[in-house]
Every structure is written in C-alpha cells, then in structure tokens.
Amino acid sequence: WSKVSGPAEVTFDDANSLVTNAHFTSRGKYVLRLTMNDGLFAASDDLIVVVNSEPQVSAGADKMIRLRDTATLQGALLDSGLGEEASGTLTYLWSVESGPGEVTFANQNALATTATFTKSGPYLLRLTANNGFFTASDDVVISVAGRVTPGLQTLHVFKEGSGESVRDIAALDPPLPFALPESGVTWVEGGLA
User: Rounded to two decimals, what is the model's pTM?
Assistant: First the structure.
C-alpha cells in the first residue's frame, strides 16, 4: 500500500498486507494505491478515501431581550469538517436545552433565524450541525426580561436634595420614565409621598 495523493501523511499498520488499516493525520481526499508484484509483473489499483471530521459551529453571543421582542439568532459555520465539500450535506437544528417557557423558532433548521419566548427568564439554546458523518453543537444563553405593564413599579435611585438625576435601575431597556405629579411630592422616611 502507498499514498498517491492527499493533503497529509498516511500510515499503514502493514503496508505489505492485502488487508490493513490506514491512519490519516488530516481530513481531505486521498488516493491510496495497492500494488501487487510477483517478480515478473506488477499490477495496481487505486482507492479514493475521503476523510471527514466534526463540523465547527458558533451559536453566537449571549444576549438579553425583552419578553415582547424577538431574538435574532446568528449562527455561523466555522468549518464544515468535510474532507471534500461534495462528500456530505450540512444540516442545522436549533433546540431548547432549558428555559422557563416555550420557544418558537421562525426556522429551526437555518443557521440564522429568530425566536420568540412565552415567559421571562434565562433560556439555553443549542445550535447543532451535522455534516452527514459527525455532529457538533454550540450553546447560547438568551436572557428574557419581563414584560412592562401599566402600573408597574420601577426602581429609581436618587438622594433628597442632592441634585442628582433620577435614573431607573430596574435593568429594563429602555428605562421606564419617572415623572412627579404637578401637585408636588413630599419626602418621607423611606420614599416619596
């Protein structure tokens, strides 16, 4: 047995045996040759071997959205893992690994898609890629903030008489507005009245 062509080294357990194992150090398309020689005549035949590996994908960066918003999921194929692009077909699947509610994907079989969520909280989503031979995956965390509703109390921080701006620190984006009634307010222990 011998290597005729290929992107890297090939070793054989026993290159002089009719049946042997070949070991490849890199993926790609290889041509191996078996040569028979009886001392008078030689004959050979070639074998094409395509060596594949796991694909590499990225599910994108973790993000925070509001419950009423749609999350844009930007998956990326970093490496197909295919020794020859025509040797396999890539498929993708978005799935929910954990979360407090239901998730609906616009197209769960696309690298780039959108998702909506039924409840607030953290969700672990997984993007899985399959090249026909191997499967690999990557995870992304989507933190879904609760829905803003009329009458919701916000958390504002300020100091009496300090002249500081009033700011919402409830971690909602955009921050909820803070308005004082025209009749004015009175500072009492623990807050405004």
Answer: 0.67
